């Protein structure tokens, strides 16, 4: 099973994706990192609802314990920065739409 780390579950996508991925036992969210607008109660509810193992204190900690990072926050200008700890460890990254917030980051 593929172990997914969620970075900033700001949108409805993490809940929807996590349910879909569990079908067929393909992959699952196992940990989350949050430094965005979601409150503690929302993150705890997300973790309980999907059975996450851990809330990580840093992106580096999250990147160490998962097979892939899912960047799912609404601050598009941080997507590249948030992806780096995974990429530096040779791990793939899924960046939820939009990819980035400006042309320079695309380049």
Considering the chains and any ligands shown, give keywords for the structure.
single chain; about 110 residues; alpha/beta; five-stranded parallel β-sheet; 5 helices; 5 strands; about 40% helix; about 20% strand
Map the helices and strands.
Elements: E1 2-7, H1 13-22, E2 27-33, H2 40-50, E3 54-55, H3 59-65, E4 68-71, H4 79-87, E5 93-95, H5 103-106
Parallel strand pairs: 1-2, 1-4, 2-3, 4-5
Short description:
The protein is an alpha/beta fold.
Q: Could you describe the 3D structure shown?
A:
The protein is α/β, with parallel strands linked by helices. Helix content is 38%, strand content 21%. The chain is built from five helices and five strands, in the order βαβαβαβαβα. A five-stranded parallel beta sheet has the order 3-2-1-4-5, sandwiched between helices. It starts with a strand and ends with a helix. The model has no long low-confidence stretch (mean pLDDT 90).
Rg of Cα set: 13 Å
What coarse outline follows from CA principal-axis ratios?
Answer: globular
Report, as a whole number of angstroms, the end-to-end distance: 33 Å
Give the low-pLDDT segments: none
Helix and strand composition category: alpha/beta
The biggest beta sheet reads: 5 strands, parallel
Q: Please trace the helix and strand order, writing H or E for each element.
A: EHEHEHEHEH
Count of helical stretches: 5
Strand order of the largest sheet: 3-2-1-4-5
| Beta-strand residue fraction | 15-25%
- Residues in helices, as a percent range: 25-40%
Mean pLDDT: 90
Q: How many strands?
A: 5
